[in-house]
Amino acid sequence: MPAYDIKLNGRAMRVEAEPETPLLWVIREAAGLTGTKFGCGIAQCGACTVHLDGTPLRSCSLPVSALEGREVTTIEGVAGREAEAVKEAWVARDVPQCGYCQSGQVMSAVALLREVPKPTDADIDGAMAGNLCRCATYVRIRAAIHDAARALERT
User: Fold this and answer.
1) Mean pLDDT across the chain
2) Helix 102-115 crosses helix 121-128 at what angle (to 10 degrees)?
C-alpha cells in the first residue's frame, strides 16, 4: 500500500492508504480525529470541511494521493484570532442545535474572516452557501459571523 506524508494540525504524519482513499477517512480513521463529519460523501453538504493549506475544502472528495507535502487543518487544530472569535460568537449566539454540521460551518466561517475581515451579508452567504444545516440555524450563523468580525475589529 502506498504511503503519503502530510501535515495534520501542525504535525507530520505518514499515512498508508490506497491513492483514492478520501482525506475524510484518513482524518477519522488513521488519525482518530472525529470532529470532521461525514455528511453526503459528494462534497455538497460541507460537514467534512477542513482547511488545505489554509483554504476550505470538502475532505470527503479529496483523495489522499493529492495531499503529499500539504498541510491539513481540522476543527481540532484550527486556531488563531479568527478561530477564537468564531468559537466565542457561536457559543454566545447559541448557534448549534444538533451540532452535526457545526465543525464544517466553523471551518468555513474562519476561512471567510481570514479572507474578508468585514464581511457583508452577501459575503457570508457566498462563503457559507456550501454548508448545509438541517436545523436551519442560518440566521444565527450569519449573526455570529458578524459578531466575530466586530470582535476582531476591537482586538
Assistant:
1) 96
2) 130
Residue 5: which H helix or E strand, with range?
Answer: strand 3-8
Contact status, residue 90 vs residue 103, Cβ threshold 8 Å: no
Q: What Rg, from alpha-carbon coordinates, does the chain have?
A: 15
Residue 26, classed as helix, strand or coil, is: helix
Q: Sorting pLDDT into bands at 50, 70 and 90, what band is 155?
A: confident
What are the tens digits of pLDDT across the range 2-18? 999 999 999 999 999 99
Sheet holding 71-73, edge to edge: 11-16, 3-8, 71-73, 49-52, 55-58
User: Which cell is 140 given?
Assistant: 444565527
Determine contact, residues 30/79, Cβ cutoff 8 Å: no
CB 130 within 8 A of CB 108: yes
